[in-house]
Amino acid sequence: MTPPSAPDGRDAGTPVDLVVVGLGYVGLPLAARACEAGVRTIGLDVSAEVADGLNAGRSHVGDVPDSVVADMVAAGFTATTAPSVLAAADTIVLCVPTGCPHQVNRI
Question: What CATH number is given to the structural domain containing 23?
Fold first, then answer.
């Protein structure tokens, strides 16, 4: 029996070092630095448009150029909308909006 395949093409049971949940202005730079350091990284986002763009080497974050995303993909990074990737993660980092109202004073 062939093991099931994860969305990024790995066997579903193959471990990954890091899954970054939320690939916005915090999560994408974090994933980029992890890839740069040689950490096996998958990005998880709710937006298929974001995941597809990143997998094609296109950034949607102004501080992360397309060339950095292309390097990430070349290093093995994949983005997905499938939460099943969490099962094989050694580490999961959540980078999602806090939902703080604009009226709250920030420290």
Answer: 3.40.50.720
Give the pLDDT confidence of 61-73 residue by residue, as tens digits.
999 999 999 999 9
| Total-model pTM | 0.81
Q: Is position 1 within any domain?
A: no
Domain count within the chain: 1
Strand partners, 41: 18
Token pair listed for 85: 């990737």
List Cβ neighbours of 80 (8 Å cut-off, separation of 6 or more).
Answer: 7, 8, 42, 43, 44, 45, 51
Residue 103 is assigned to a structural domain of this protein: no
